[in-house]
Amino acid sequence: MRLDEFAEFLDADTGWRDEVRTRLLARLDPRMVERTSCLRVAELAEELDTQVTVEPRPDVTFDIAKAVHCRVPFKGVVRLRHTARNLRVLGVYLCAVAGRDLGACPCAVALAADPSDAAVRHVIGSALDRAGL
Fold first, then answer.
1. d(CA 53, CA 6)
2. What is the full DSSP assignment across 49-66?
3. In terms of Cα–Cα distance, which of 118, 129, 98 is closest to 19?
4. Which residue of 47, 78, 99, 124 is most buried, as measured by CB atoms within 10 A?
5. What are phi and psi of 131, to 5 degrees?
6. Which residues contact 20 (CB under 8 A, 6 or more apart)?
């Protein structure tokens, strides 16, 4: 899908934010979420998406990834991919609530480039659905 189309949808339809709040953020410690950024989330999501294993580290964003990862009902690399996808959903949310341009959000860029979603309006919901959230 095209990034500009995805960013326009995210800017115009704020209902996805409520969905992220109730399905993802409600399962995370809000203090951890406040201490991370889209950029850090995007970096970790990319690492999860491109590697078979990821080394643990003392990092609040890594703790968020662990909290998401433990809820994903798959195993192995598929579990890492779905964790990465949902971290990107979180990153888009963080950019949106900070008022940043979603067309420049690294997490939105990665979600828009994902070939598994053809319909813009279903990207956020399907990422949460596929991860079991």
1. 30
2. HH-S-----S-HHHHHHH
3. 129
4. 124
5. -90, 0
6. 89, 90, 93, 124, 128
83-131 confidence digits (pLDDT tens): 999 999 999 999 999 999 999 999 999 988 876 766 677 788 888 887 7
DSSP notation for 90-105: HHHHHHHHTT--GGG-
Structure tokens belonging to residue 19 = 């969905």
Cα distance between residue 91 and residue 36, in whole Å = 9
Structural contact between residues 32 and 63, judged by C-beta atoms closer than 8 angstroms: yes
Residues of the chain by 3-state class (helix, strand, coil), percent to 5:
70, 0, 30
What's the rounded Cα separation, in Å, for the pair 131 and 48?
14
State how far the Cα of 124 lies from the Cα of 88, in Å rounded to an integer: 9
**Three-state DSSP state, 115:** coil
Query: 28 with 68: CB under 8 angstroms?
Result: yes
Angstrom distance (rounded) from CA 93 to CA 99? 10
